[in-house]
Specification:
The protein is an alpha+beta fold. 46% of the residues lie in helices and 14% in strands. It is built from six helices and six strands. The strands form two sheets. The protein has a three-stranded mixed sheet with strand order 1-3-2. Strands 5-4-6 form a three-stranded antiparallel sheet. A hairpin with a 4-residue loop joins strand 4 (125-129) and strand 5 (134-138). Helix 1 packs parallel to helix 3 (67-88) and helix 3 (67-88) packs across helix 4. The chain is elongated and about 60 Å long. It starts with 7 loop residues before the first helix and ends with a strand. The structure holds zinc ion (2 copies). One zinc ion (ZN) binds next to helix 3.
């Protein structure tokens, strides 16, 4: 892949992959081959790792909206999938090997960020009212109210929330 085809945001991502790879190489005192970095990940997924191809794919749309998260979390997250495969072979995607890499090598909480994507795409909020004013409920809570499974009260005034 030619660097000249990359815009500045993509270059930042590639540079971060290189940096993370350096960190891992230093940690394990072993050289890891630089993965192919592509920006063709589609859908709600932030990124993915092709283990056999030694390839990382990032979602351009999400990347531009969440560049900080990509640099801090998504790049090391995906790279750890490749590293886990190189070091341990076929292991569970977010299993203990991957978690250890995240924690020990990159000092990151081994969380899956797939929640971020879902929240972003389906993070619809529903407006409810109490005496203090409007309050936003998540779709999950809203559905519970609709199904009469749960009632919610305002934490400040204590009145029961009703759909606006
Ligand atoms: Zn993952
Ligand atoms: Zn209130």
């Amino acid at each position: 892949m030619q660097k000249s085809y990359l815009d500045p945001t993509m270059q930042q991502i590639v540079a971060r992959v290189e940096q993370c790879l350096d960190i891992a190489s230093a940690y394990f005192k072993q050289a890891f081959e630089m993965p192919q970095v592509k920006f063709n990940q589609r859908g709600k997924i932030a990124g993915s790792a092709r283990l056999q191809l030694n390839e990382l794919r990032f979602n351009q749309v999400l990347m531009r909206d969440n560049l900080d998260t990509f640099l801090s979390d998504v790049v090391p997250h995906e790279l750890c999938h490749l590293l886990a495969f190189r070091l341990f072979g076929r292991v569970r995607p977010h299993g203990k090997e991957w978690q250890t890499l995240m924690r020990e090598v990159f000092h990151l909480k081994p969380a899956t960020y797939h929640l971020m994507d879902v929240t972003k795409v389906s993070g619809r909020k529903f407006t409810y009212m109490c005496k203090c004013g409007p309050i936003q409920l998540s779709i999950r809570r809203h559905n519970k109210v609709v199904r009469k499974v749960q009632k919610y009260r305002c934490l400040k005034c204590g009145t029961q929330l009703v759909a606006a």
